[in-house]
Amino acid sequence: MKQQLRRGFKSEADAYARKYRKELSLRPHDPLCPWRLAQHLEIPVDPLSAYTKIQEAVAHFMEQAR
User: pLDDT truncated to tens, each residue of the chain (66 aa)?
Assistant: First the structure.
């Protein structure tokens, strides 16, 4: 079943993407790196390996990344 997005979601997302690409001095169709955007927005990003108390889940996802 296809999930419906709220009205105007795609336009809003496109506007944000244009805004942040401009702030990061990127061209309109350049890829928007999520880690660079997070740094620009001062949003901390923890590596998955920082969550050692859930080692089994971390190991699963670390294996998937290889």
Answer: 678 889 999 999 999 999 999 999 999 999 999 999 999 999 999 887 777 677 777 777 777 666
Cβ atoms within 10 Å of 32's Cβ, excluding its own: 14
Please say whether the beta carbons of 25 and 18 come within 8 A: no
Q: Which two tokens stand for residue 4?
A: 């419906």
Phi then psi dihedrals of residue 4, to 5 deg = -85, 135
Its pTM surpasses 0.70: no
Supply the DSSP symbol for 4: P
Structure tokens that stand for 2 in this block: 């296809």
